[in-house]
Amino acid sequence: MKKIVLIAIICIAVGGIGLFFTSSAFFMKTANGSAETKKLEQKQFKNEQIKNIHVDTDVGDVVIEKGKTDLFEVRYSGDQEKRKLDVNENGEMLQVEVKTKKRHIFDFSFFSFDLKDESLTVIVPERVYNKIEAKTAAGTIHVQDIQGEDISVHSAAGDVEMKEMKAQNVKVSSSAGEVVLHKVEGKVHAEAAAGSVEITQHNPEYSVEADSAAGDVSIQLQEMPKDAVVKGASHAGDVQIFGKENKEITLGNGKIQIKGKTAAGSVTIEAN
Which of the residues 20, 91, 97, 151 has an alpha carbon 20 to 30 A from that of 272? Predict the structure, then answer.
């Protein structure tokens, strides 16, 4: 009886080892196969009617920036067996999307999420756009050197960076990352649920509001504002306005609103 039990234990152990190596080989093959399917898809086109841009991805980093020609260019680098690029021109609207293809739940590749090489780049001609929207569910977003009336950017799981922009209204947010704005001219609302907010070289002629639920907030103005209400608030940290511990200062007629707020961190508002 003992011999039978011992033989059964040996068989189970050998079977488990075999299953381990078989599974390991399968997932190694899957990873290698994913690398082989990673390709660069590129599209160029000219459209003088486009004034609105909508970019949406469920996976990967996003870059939107001004080009040197009058052409639009879309570059997607990623696993094209798992994800699909759609570029649609509809009147004044350009829609660019990268979405994960639907797969059977028992397909083992359904559970493979190697996101580090997924990226989407949208190059746009120089012009003033009516509306620009960009969002990703898992990745960073970088927007640079673009002019528009309304600009809205959101990352559900990644940092958001914006540089040298001009707009009437700018709304930037991240649910799990940092928000960094540099020389973004216009009325700004920046929000981070789990990260810091840093705004540098902001024109004090425009209102700015920066909120963080779990991080520091820093606002640097190009110069001392003439007509503004400057406020800072923190539930668990220091608040400094123009080098002094203060929570509110009114300058001139208080026309412009400059606010920094955090639930768990420090708030610093300063001017060059």
Answer: 151
Q: Does residue 209 carry a pLDDT above 80?
A: yes
Identify whether the C-beta of residue 82 lies closer than 8 Å to the C-beta of residue 101: yes
Helix (H) or strand (E) holding 147: strand 147-155
* Beta-strand relationship, 72-79 and 119-124: antiparallel
DSSP 116: T
pLDDT band at 38 (very low <50, low <70, confident <90, very high): low
First CA to last CA distance, the chain: 86
- Among candidate residues 137, 133, 127, the one with its CA nearest the CA of residue 94: 133
What backbone torsions phi and psi does residue 77 show, to the nearest 5 degrees? -120, 115
Determine the average pLDDT of the residues in 14-35. Answer: 38
The answer to whether 265 and 237 are in contact (CB under 8 A) is yes
Integer Cα distance of 269 and 214 in angstroms: 18
At 81 the pLDDT is 87
Across the chain, what does the average pLDDT equal? 85
Q: Which residues pair with 41 in a beta bridge?
A: 76
Specify the pTM: 0.82
Q: Give 33's DSSP letter.
A: H
CA 229 vs CA 214, 224, 225, 246: distances in Å = 24, 12, 9, 12
